Amino acid sequence: MSLSRFAARAKQAGESAVAANLQAGIPVTGLTNGRLQTITPDDYRAVNLMAKARNVETA
Known about the structure:
The protein is α+β, with helices and mostly antiparallel strands. The protein has helices at 3-23, 44-58; strands at 28-32, 35-39. It has a single domain (3-58), classed as Head-to-tail joining protein W, gpW (2-Layer Sandwich). A two-stranded antiparallel sheet has the order 1-2.
């Protein structure tokens, strides 16, 4: 497996884990846009991430 493919899969796995926590109502804290931030399930970024995760699961 190439390094770029590995990195893409790691990113997808991280996004899926974050989306799962947000869907369960659990806020997620992490580095976003170079700043430490907490994303709550009703945050617009969370809504976009959960929609993206659903699209990946159905593809």
